[in-house]
Fold this protein.
Amino acid sequence: MASPQAANDNCANAEIIGEGVHSGTLVGATNDGTASCGVSASSPDVWYSFTANCTGPLVVSTCGTHDGPGLDLGIDTVLSVFDGCNGNELDCNDDDYTPLACAGLDNGTLRDSAIILDVSIGETFLIRVANYSSGATGPFVLRVDCTGITNGAEYCAEALYPCPCFAFSNPGEGCPNTTGVGATLVAAGDPSVGASSFSLTAAQLPDTSGLFVQGTSAVGGVDGNPVGEGRLCLGPQKRYSPQSASNGTVTRSNFQNFALAGQSINYQYWYRDPGNVCNGGGFNFTPAWNCIWAP
Ligand SMILES: [Ca+2]
Ligand SMILES: [Ca+2]
Ligand SMILES: [Ca+2]
C-alpha cells in the first residue's frame, strides 16, 4: 500500500513556516521540482514557504536529520531555495562540510544540508527538501533561522564561526570573556528622538572600563568581524565617553542626542578584559543592537 502523499508534496501547496525547527518527511512524496546539486533533480521533494523577518543572513538547514535516528542512520537530504515555484534556484546544498550550521548536529559522515542566503525583510522563498539520488526517504528536520538584523533586536549574538579565541558564543551573548561567559546587550524604553526613555545595558562584563559605540552600518554579517577577543558588528561612527562596569553591568541613556528620526542605528559595547581569554589583545564586545529611531 502506498504511503499517503505529504500535504506539501507540490510546490503550489508549500507549507508556510516561520523561524524555528520543523519536522517533515519525504515518505510518500513525489518529484515535482528540480535542483542543481546532490543528484536530486528527480528525487521526491516537499516544499516550504518562508517570508524573511530580518535583513541579513538567513540560515536554512536540515541539521539533525542524518543522525536523528542514530549516528548516520537518517536520510541524506539535499536542500535548495527558490524565489518562487518554477522560479530561479538561489542556492543548493547537499552535504554541509563546513563548520557552519550543522556543527555538533551532524556527526560521523556529514550528510545534512545547510544554506546561508543574504535576504531582505519581506522577501518570500520556496524551500525544497529532497533526498540524495535514489536514496531512502524518511523523516527530516528543517531549521530556519533569520539571523540578520531586525529592528529592536540583538544581532551578532549567535555566530556560526568560532570566536577569535576559538570558543563559540552562547546564544544571545558575545564572545566569552574572563568571567567565563560572553557579555549581553539589552535595550529598555522606546528609541524616540523626542524622548529620553531609551537605554542600553551591557551585562556579564568584567568590572573594567569600556564604552558604547554606534554606527549606521552593520559589518561582517551574522558574525561581525573578529577584533581583539570578540566581534565588531558595526561600522563605528561615534564613540561615547568611557564608563566602568560595576557588578558586571553598565547602562547608558541619552542616545537620542545622536540619532535622527527614521535613522537605523546599531550599538555595541566595547570593553577591556585585561585577563586575556587568549592573546587577543585584552578587549572584547557585547553583541550588537539595532533600532530605527522614531520622531
Ligand atoms: Ca513533490
Ligand atoms: Ca551524520
Ligand atoms: Ca546530503
Q: What stands out?
A: Residues 66-67, 72, 106-111 surround calcium ion (ligand 2) (CB under 6 Å). The radius of gyration is 22 Å. The first strand starts at residue 15 and ends at 17. The domain at 153-292 is CATH 2.60.40 (Immunoglobulin-like).
